[in-house]
Every structure is written in structure tokens, then in C-alpha cells.
Amino acid sequence: MQQITTALVLGANRYKVERQTGGYLYLLEPGDHENPDALGLGIRKVKMPYEMYDQLRDKRVPAVFDVLTEAERAGQEADNEIAVSVRGDGKLTAETLNELFGISASAKAPGKVPDQPLQGAAYALVIAASRFEAEDGRRYSNIVISQKTSGRNPNQLGFEIIRIPIAWDLFAAFQAKGLPGEYKLLTSLRSGSGFKARLKVDGVEGENYLDQTRLHQLFGVQPQQPQAPRPANPEAPAKPA
Fold it and tell me: Between the CA of residue 138 and those of 54, 61, 125, what are the distances in Å?
């Protein structure tokens, strides 16, 4: 079964490990407001063929595309979604961003995000947050932040998605502030497995820096200027008798 989804493609990447190749599209969609354990926007991770990445290389990403997908059998009771094609020139307007992020023209940020944040803090675009409680009683919660790719990886386009665990109680703080938004995150580095550092978010403070001006700046779009009304047609001169 195939279906076409018109969505904002936030980013894309591909991989080639030994004999296995593939890639992923990340689609940004309106969130599930009926789920009390989910905040912000929805993020769909869609598998794609390795070669499809080349179709996007010369197009604008992030941008809105028509993504043709089909279900791929993954197990006895689950299907994976795989992209068959990505159609369109890749357009993104300020109006599309305003509607998706739910930011009104009257919303104003408290100031500009500093270029050099304080040590132990990071300003980040928080797209979504979620939490769930396992059957054994353990609780898990995380946030999803997004930022522009560095451009150094030839197999990555657009924005990258980073999922970071947070304390269970911190979910309520994001719920009170509202998502999506750009906030100052209090962070710390912890030791992880295999001598790898693990970033932890310990808190969130301050106001939301994401207004329409900042949103358009992040995505590199210009709002359409209102057109001046056309002057009324002058009356035709009277013909001489």
C-alpha cells in the first residue's frame, strides 16, 4: 500500500556499512495534542534507499516535498515505512513555518540568542518532548532538539535530529513553557559506555526565544511582503461632442 504525504522534510542522511546501505528522511509534522505524554511537533523517521539521497542533494532542505511511501514488512505484527520517491522542487515559506510552529505575529522573543552561550548551558531549538513508563515501573523521558548540520558530512543534509534523555520531572517544565521553542538548557557531560561522553539536560530556564523573526532566520526564509493595493482605474475622459 502506497500513500503520498506532503510534509516538511527537516533533514536526511544515509549510511554505508560493509554490505548494508540505506538512509532516512526526517519529516516534521503537527504534534499529537491528544497524547498527554507528548509535547511539541511530531517527527517521522522514514527509511529510504541509499540512492534517493542524491535526489535531494541539489534541492533545498529543509523544505516541503511530496513523499511517496509504502509499508515494508518488518515483523509479524509491525511494518516499516519506506520512501519510494520524493517529489517537488523543495519550497519553504514563512507562512508554512508560522502555521506549523504555531507562532503568531504578535509573539516577540525576549532578545537575541547569544552567539557564545555560557559554559554549562546551550541554547537549542526544542522540537518535541515525550515520556513513557515501562511495565517494570521504570520511567523514561527525553527531548528532541534540532540544529543545522555542520556541512562537513557529505551524507547529511538539512537539519539533524538529536534525542537527549531528561529527568522525568523535567517534562512538566517543558509542558509549562510550551513546545516547540528555543530555550536555554542547563547541561552537563557524564561518562557513558565505551568511554563516550553523554550529554544530559539538567534544567531549562528563561523565556522562549522563538518568535517569527527567529524562526525565519533559523530556516533561512523571508516572509512575503504585503502588496500595495492597486489604484482604482481612472475614469475615462469624456469624448468631445
Answer: 42, 38, 28
* Distance between CA atoms of residues 98 and 73, nearest Å: 36
- Span 92-103, pLDDT tens digits: 999 999 999 999
Angle at alpha carbon of residue 39, lines to 199 and 36, rounded to 5°: 120
Q: Give phi and psi for 94, each to the nearest 5.
A: -60, -35
Res 200: pLDDT: 82
Q: Which three cell numbers stand for residue 75?
A: 515483523
In terms of phi and psi (left: phi > 0; alpha: psi -120 to 50; beta: otherwise), the region of 18 is left
* Mean pLDDT on 122-140: 94
The span from the CA of 227 to the CA of 202, in Å, is 47
Mean pLDDT to the nearest integer, 17-38: 92
Give the separation between CA 107 and CA 209, rounded to whole angstroms: 10
Domain limits, the chain: 2-219
**Is the whole-model pTM more than 0.85?**
no
Which 3-state string (H, E, C) describes 16-47? EECCEEEEEEEEEECCCCCCCCEEECEEEEEE
CA distances from 72 to 1, 12, 196, 201 (A): 9, 19, 34, 36
Instruction: Mention every residue, 6+ apart, whose C-beta is less than 8 A from residue 151.
Output: none
The phi, psi pair for 49, rounded to 5°, reads: -65, 150
**Using an 8 Å Cβ cutoff, are 63 and 8 in contact?**
yes
Listed in order, strand segments (DSSP E) in the chain are: 2-17, 20-29, 38-40, 42-48, 63-73, 79-91, 121-133, 139-148, 156-165, 181-191, 197-205
